[in-house]
Specification:
Layout: H1 2-21, E1 32-33, E2 43-45, H2 47-55, H3 59-69, E3 75-81, E4 85-90, H4 92-104, E5 119-123, H5 135-154, E6 157-164, H6 169-183, H7 195-202, H8 213-234, E7 241-244, H9 245-250, H10 253-263, E8 267-270, E9 273-276, E10 290-293, H11 302-314, E11 319-325, H12 331-341, E12 349-354, E13 357-361, E14 364-366, H13 378-385, H14 387-395, E15 403-406, H15 407-411, H16 419-439, H17 459-481, H18 485-504, H19 513-536
Parallel strand pairs: 5-6, 5-11, 6-7, 11-12, 13-15
Antiparallel strand pairs: 1-2, 2-4, 3-4, 8-9, 9-10, 13-14
The structure holds one RNA strand of 75 nucleotides.
Length: about 550
RNA sequence: GUCCCCGUAGCUCAAUGGAUAGAGCACGUGCCUUCUAAGCAUGCGAUACAGGUUCGAUUCCUGUCGGGGACACCA
């Protein structure tokens, strides 16, 4: 964790200096890699420029003064560069010590013991069990599952949940749709038209003949929910709990929540319905109030949703994150208002809205509609392109991007997918270790003694050492932006440094034992970080390709 | 009409307000008698438009144009 300790050192040195000078340092330590043309340093700090503005002093002079303070075990030298950067070069020995720490216990690399104590619940996918999961669910699953993995790696407490809408009117609608298929009559106009129901009807048990629509609906939902579970399993996305809406009704949580809101004076009646004043809540962005109980006496979807979120808080979670598709973005303001109505603090609820996927077959756009049954299922793509390619592809994008997904491309030229570029690093390192054992450079079971800083000084090697040092910081960025995509980018960059190293620096060489072993150590570090990083994205790291 | 997201290379996508905007694919040219060529080297090529904020803007603000999505006593 070389950068974490470096940051601590710099911060304390700088604040002591600032105190002496009577200056106020900017918040946060914005340490970043130097641009490619700055070869003499590894890191840069733009502090002096912000400081120059507030203190009305020459930034370059401030940078020089600041650089003079930076004496630390990790730092070889620190110097000012115009217009006011402080550029820092790391000590080779410190980089090698970091490498050793990585290989000693790869699973602990990136743990952030000083971070905030959080107890987070992330709800994602939560697709209705009225049809197979479609490809878009893969995006939510990638986001949620990878985030959970990174948060846990950092040391946060994080749980994953899938909310199942198995109550309400759609059970019967689904039942009517499949019943019609069974009887060979037309499917109701607003019903579910998908062929999957026809298939399911064919396989219904004999006693199904006498079933009511509700019984049919429950039967179909159970089967569909099971396929959702299997699909998520195949996608390597894991949930700590599949939370059924029906549980809320069974336990009386829906009524209790309504009473709770009533007692808090948050609801009113109008036109025979019960409303939540979401638009008038403080700082509310909702444009109108929302119905909780219809004039028919039936609750809307919104009331059990609130009950579910209350339930999450009641179970001790302090931060709730919902991952939603862009078609649900209107849901966010009203749920925020509901959280406020429950009396929970601002910031205890956060929504990640990811944009939709545009599907293409070649150049032709594919229109998708679940009701009409015309859609591309997650399973279909999974079977064609595989879990690794699919997850990495999704993990590379920010949730905000409207991504285009070309089925032709995904199914035929999978080499387009950069996941192989990363995985290939892992396979190559594995091959190197096999060769090393064969040539006796590293004897069977012999532990590596430790990287020798004297040997790992080629630009290609140093660049890798520095890049490896960034891994823990990248995980923190993932936490900050609530998206795994910086990790995907990082792994590609690391891979992009390894391959040139592989071409230029021969690793296994019996004539140069010490150099070989030092390079093997570097390879081990790359292998470990690639493997750990890919695993956080739910992608495998093969030994052979 | 109101609200949300996006507009970066021929294509798919990156870039906590920092220095000369990065990758991959496609295309051109080289590189497999040595640890896997799913690789390397090299060339080509981009911030929609107009203002503003600032030492500095792809990033923040306003407007225009273009694309996607949402605006139920559906979920």
């Amino acid at each position: 964790m070389i950068l974490a300790s470096l940051k601590k050192n710099i911060a304390s040195k700088a604040s002591a200096w600032a105190k002496k000078e009577g200056l106020i340092l900017p918040d946060g330590l914005a340490l970043s890699p130097t641009p490619p043309h700055v070869k003499s340093a590894d890191l840069s700090l733009p502090w002096a420029m912000t400081l120059g503005k507030t203190a009305r002093k020459n930034p370059l002079e401030l940078a020089k003064a600041l650089a003079g303070q930076f004496v630390a075990p990790e730092i070889e030298k620190a110097e000012a560069a115009p217009p006011g950067f402080v550029n820092i070069r790391l000590r080779d020995s410190a980089l090698c010590a970091n490498l050793k720490a990585i290989t000693l216990n790869p699973a602990l690399y990136g743990v952030d013991p000083d971070g905030p104590k959080r107890k987070i619940l992330i709800e994602f996918v939560s697709a209705n069990p009225t049809g197979p999961l479609h490809l878009a669910s893969g995006r939510g699953a990638t986001l949620g599952d990878s985030l959970i993995r990174v948060l846990r790696r950092l040391g946060r407490e994080a749980s994953a949940e899938y909310y199942v809408n198995d109550a309400g009117g759609r059970v019967e609608l689904l039942g009517e749709s499949i019943k019609a298929r069974f009887a060979g009559t037309p499917v109701p106009e607003k019903g579910y038209q998908g062929e999957y129901l026809a298939e399911m009807a064919k396989q219904a048990p004999a006693e199904a003949k006498g079933w009511t629509a509700k019984q049919w609906g429950e039967h179909a939902m159970k089967i569909l929910l099971d396929t959702h579970k299997r699909d998520m399993e195949a996608f390597d996305a894991h949930f700590d709990r599949w939370f059924l809406e029906s549980e809320l009704y069974a336990g009386g949580a829906v009524e209790k929540t309504l009473k709770y809101l009533k007692d808090r004076g948050m609801v009113y009646e109008k036109d025979g319905a019960v409303w939540l004043g979401t638009s008038s809540a403080q700082d509310s962005e909702d444009d109108k109030d929302r119905v909780l109980v219809k004039s028919s006496g039936q609750p809307t979807y919104f009331l059990p949703d609130i009950a579910y979120h209350k339930n999450k808080f009641d179970r001790g979670f302090t931060e709730l994150i919902d991952i939603l598709g862009a078609d649900h973005h209107g849901y966010v303001p009203r749920m925020k208002a509901a959280i406020t109505a429950l009396g929970m603090p601002e910031g205890s609820f956060h929504a990640i809205v990811h944009q939709l996927i545009h599907l293409y077959r070649g150049k032709e756009a594919v229109k998708m509609s679940k009701r009409a049954g015309d859609f591309v299922s997650l399973r279909e793509v999974l079977d064609e392109v595989g879990k690794d390619a699919c997850r990495f592809f999704f993990a590379m994008r920010t949730p905000d991007s409207h991504l285009n997904f070309d089925l032709e491309l995904a199914k035929s030229k999978t080499s387009e997918n950069p996941v192989y570029y990363c995985q290939y690093v892992h396979a190559r390192v594995s091959a190197i270790f096999r060769e090393a054992a064969k040539q006796g450079v590293l004897k069977e079971g012999e532990p590596l003694p430790g990287p020798n800083a004297k040997f790992l000084t080629a630009p290609e090697e140093r660049a890798i050492l520095v890049k490896l040092a960034w891994f823990p910081e990248v995980l923190k960025t993932v936490e900050a932006v609530l998206s795994p995509h910086p990790l995907g980018g990082y792994l590609l960059e690391l891979a992009g440094l390894f391959h040139p190293f592989y071409e230029k620096c021969r690793v296994v060489d019996p004539e140069n034992g010490e150099l070989s072993r030092a390079r093997l150590f570097l390879c081990a570090g790359v292998r470990d970080v690639i493997r750990e990083g890919l695993s956080l994205l739910g992608v495998s790291a093969p030994d052979q390709m």
